[in-house]
Amino acid sequence: MEFPEELKYTEEHEWVMVEEELAVIGISDFAQDALGDVVFVELPEVGTVLETGKAFGVVESVKAVSDIYAPISGTVEEINEDLLDTPEIINTSPYEDGWMIKIRMDDAAEADALMTADAYQKLIAEES
Amino acid sequence: MKKTPLNQTHRELGARMVDFGGWDMPVQYSGVIDEHQAVREAAGLFDVSHMGEVEVSGANALAFIQQLTINDAAKLVDGQVQYSAMCYPEGGVVDDVTLYRFNESRYLFCVNASNTDKDFAWMQQVLAESAINDVTLTNRSDEFAQIALQGPKAETILSSLTDVVLADLVYYHFCEGAVAGVEMIISRTGYTGEDGFELYLPASSAVNVWQAIMTAGTPQGLLPIGLGARDTLRLEKGYALYGHELSREISPLEAGLAWITKLDKEDFVGKAVLVAQKAEGLSRRRVGLVMQERGIPREGYPVFVGDREVGVVTSGTMSPSLKVGVALALVEPAFAQEETELEVAIRNRRMGAKVQRPPFVK
């Protein structure tokens, strides 16, 4: 399993990649593996205001429905439309092709407070 | 947690294990969709050793079974299998079962894993309260392992491990014979809608037989299959699952099992209520639903017509074969006709669905 160093992570298994005032959000390799085959993704509309810790989308595997939580607050700038027709790219490429949304952050300092790849790996080692 | 004799084998295969009604069972190995497709296109091997087996023997075995179950067991000949169910006097379902007839005084029930103790106690109670003598009930669940080999390549794979002429063994029949040198019951039955076999064998031989079948089948595309794909495979065919389509609160008539509910046979437990239910008309019926919009129906989601809630989803999934959401649901009879347009409430949205008689996948 891979956890790129340049990303930040949450306890709910999302990742965040900061690009200046924008942030790209997806779910981690650990999360996609735990979910199994992803068959449906529900994303917010562009312009939706996200509040830290609130569900913004849903990922469904064959067996389970999982809410995806906003790691930081902001406004949705772009969504990954490819996920609507090919949700399985979350399994094959969780950090690249399988990104979920891009938001304009309210406060970039929020992203700094998230976990590093090291801290996240320690967390999942404890969970599993 | 209870373990089947194949528990360690699953772990060695890298299976993801879950608690399934108190049993530590594999939910997936390589992935649900992969496994599902293997069963539809080649073959899959399932550990179903958690299922329960109860033997009924004695001169009055048939009379007892006729009292206990809703199907007509008198129709069975030696070596034949019947799908049936047991009901409470109130008409709800105790469990759905398969019944094996060895001869007129020896039968075997296969029952759902998590219901085994309840079912066995129920059988003893029905026997005790009846005037029937000379019947012995034996819970043999711990003696048996059960392995299901399912898929279009199942006969080819199993034939390489047995002298039994499988081509002569027709659907819903069984025989006794050796597979990989182990004497067992070979039954041409399954829960996937594909051709295949369910093998009842001594628990002590389970690992050897499993490995022999895997070795013979791997070149044919055989994969080990977990509970995840077992559920999508049965749902695509519209098969009922106890705890979802069947329960103490749901009668077999409501659940779409009228075809095994023989109201014209002699008295059986639940008959009076079921006869009355049929005469008065049902308040709900089981239907199949196919989503007309993207979205996956799940158990417990309400079903609407306009603003009116007319039913509830009992099982639902994304069909790996069709790539659309499919479900079984209980709805008011007025909305149970083929092609009726309904809506399923998926989270905060209503999504269009159409009534379609299963199997969803032919």
Show the helix and strand layout.
The complex is a heterodimer of chains A (128) and B (362).
Chain A: E1 8-9, E2 14-19, E3 22-27, H1 29-35, E4 38-42, E5 49-50, E6 55-61, E7 65-69, E8 74-79, H2 82-85, H3 89-92, E9 101-105, H4 109-112, H5 117-127
Antiparallel strand pairs in A: 1-2, 2-3, 3-9, 4-6, 5-8, 6-7, 8-9
Chain B: H1 7-12, E1 16-20, E2 23-28, H2 32-41, E3 43-47, E4 52-57, H3 61-68, E5 80-87, E6 93-103, E7 106-111, H4 116-129, E8 136-139, E9 144-150, H5 154-159, E10 174-179, E11 182-187, E12 196-202, H6 206-217, E13 222-224, H7 227-236, H8 271-280, E14 285-291, E15 302-305, E16 308-318, E17 325-331, E18 341-346, E19 349-355
Parallel strand pairs in B: 3-13
Antiparallel strand pairs in B: 1-2, 3-9, 4-7, 4-8, 5-6, 6-7, 9-12, 10-11, 11-12, 14-17, 14-19, 15-16, 15-18, 16-17, 18-19
Helix pairs in contact in B: 2-7
Notes on the protein architecture:
The complex is a heterodimer of chains A (128) and B (362). Chain A is an alpha+beta fold and 128 residues long. In chain A, 23% of the residues lie in helices and 34% in strands. Chain A has helices at 29-35, 82-85, 89-92, 109-112, 117-127; strands at 8-9, 14-19, 22-27, 38-42, 49-50, 55-61, 65-69, 74-79, 101-105. In chain A, the strands form 2 sheets. Chain A has a 6-stranded antiparallel β-sheet with strand order 1-2-3-9-8-5. Chain A has a 3-stranded antiparallel β-sheet with strand order 4-6-7. The longest helix of chain A has 11 residues, at 117-127. Chain A is globular, with a radius of gyration of 13 Å. Chain B is α+β, with helices and mostly antiparallel strands and 362 residues long. Chain B has 3 domains: 7-49 and 143-236, Gyrase A, domain 2 (2-Layer Sandwich), CATH 3.30.1360.120; 52-125, Aminomethyltransferase beta-barrel domains (Alpha-Beta Plaits, 2-Layer Sandwich), CATH 3.30.70.1400; 283-362, Elongation Factor Tu (Ef-tu), domain 3 (Beta Barrel). Chain B has helices at 7-12, 32-41, 61-68, 116-129, 154-159, 206-217, 227-236, 271-280; strands at 16-20, 23-28, 43-47, 52-57, 80-87, 93-103, 106-111, 136-139, 144-150, 174-179, 182-187, 196-202, 222-224, 285-291, 302-305, 308-318, 325-331, 341-346, 349-355. Chain B has a 6-stranded mixed β-sheet with strand order 10-11-12-9-3-13, sandwiched between helices. A 6-stranded antiparallel barrel of chain B has the order 14-17-16-15-18-19. In chain B, strand 10 (174-179) and strand 11 (182-187) form a beta hairpin. In chain B, helix 2 (32-41) crosses helix 7. The longest helix of chain B is centred in the middle third of the chain and has 14 residues, at 116-129. The radius of gyration of chain B is 21 Å and the shape is globular. The two termini of chain B are 37 Å apart. The chains are: A alpha+beta (128), B alpha+beta (362). At the A-B interface, strand 4 and strand 6 of A face helix 2 and helix 7 of B.
